[in-house]
Amino acid sequence: MTDMTLQSADAPHEPLRFPLAGKVAIVTGGGTGIGRAAALAYARAGASVVVAGRRAGELQQVVDEIHRQASHIPALPGNLALPTDVSSEVQVQALVARTREHFGRLDVAFNNAGVLGHFAPITQQSAADFDEVMAINLKGVWLCAKYQIEAFLAQGEGGAIINTSSWLAQGALAGSSIYSASKGALDAMIRALALEYGRQGIRINNICPGIIDTPMARSSGDVAAYQPFVEHTPMKRMGQPEDIGDVAVWLASEGARFITGQSILVDGGYTIGGLRWQ
Predict the structure, then answer these.
(1) Is-contact 108 47, C-beta < 8 A?
(2) Which strands make up the sheet holding 159-164, listed edge to edge?
(3) Given pLDDT bands bounded at 50, 70 and 90, which one contains residue 253?
(4) CB 230 within 8 A of CB 237
(5) Distances in whole angstroms, Cα of residue 101 to Cα of each of 43, 106, 135, 140, 214
(6) Is 179 an active-site residue?
(7) Which of 7, 123, 255, 261 could connect to 237 by a Cys-Cys bridge, CB 3.0–4.6 Å?
(8) Taking the model in full, what pTM does it have?
(9) How far apart are alpha carbons 32 and 37 in whole angstroms?
(10) Contact, 268 vs 235, CB < 8 A?
């Protein structure tokens, strides 16, 4: 059997056009993986980007990378790396305030920061495991959305929020009870927020990635362990962070102007139910 676990898409990734020119975007969990890919994608689309996360060195590397690609981006202003723990209300409030102070506005937020936590049967998990995952994956997104929406309302021009959920919000994997609960709750939460603020032109959606080749995925074990997932995926590969980053750009753009309250699977068809013939 050919090992397709790390196989990328056949065609090289092409930069999108500039649907976010003049916009300002926050990306949390922006130092690696999906967050890094999204930050670069937002910049390629013309946005100024605030890259937030807990590891300052990685954040600055992403900002430096954005600046190196600046020759391909029209009128790109400066970008910021802002260390932030999204489970801290004070730090989240400061992240949004600093963004608006520096750029004068906020238009887009990609709330991507998250943790896997301890995957194990529930009898081998602790209340501390539960609290850690919920503090970042659910409370952290709730805090970010709260202060981002307040900023949008103050500006009076609408805005777009995109959050990273998971295929496990709708599926199941043994050992994932805490992580799945955090993402399932996130899917429920954004439906209420979409109802609350749609009239003000604020859209909020989730991306539910499938199996994506990221440092976080690799940290959970041998990458070869993902081979069964690849074999079960119609597209016969793991997703790449750019597969999610480009969807995050689209959901922030006018191309998705009538989409809100949705949790969109980006999984190469992995979660399609039914028989597999090949």
Answers:
(1) yes
(2) 80-83, 48-53, 24-28, 108-111, 159-164, 202-209, 263-266
(3) very high
(4) yes
(5) 19, 10, 27, 22, 32
(6) yes
(7) 7
(8) 0.90
(9) 8
(10) yes
What residue has token string 């999108």?
Answer: 16
* Six token digits for residue 43: 């910049």
Longest dimension (CA), the chain: 57
Distance of CA 181 to the CA centre of its chain: 17
Determine the straight-line distance between the first and last CA of the chain, rounded to whole angstroms. 13
Q: 166-212: per-residue pLDDT in tens?
A: 999 999 999 999 999 999 999 999 999 999 999 999 999 999 999 99
Would you say how long the chain is, in residues? 278
Six-digit token string for 221: 């074990």
Pairing between strand 80-83 and 108-111? unpaired
Burial class (CB in 10 A: 0-12, 13-18, 19+), 85: middle
- For residues 75 and 53, give the distance between their C-alpha atoms in angstroms, rounded to a whole number: 26
**Tokens, residue 122:** 């529930």
User: From the candidates 147, 179, 197, 226, which is the catalytic residue?
Assistant: 179
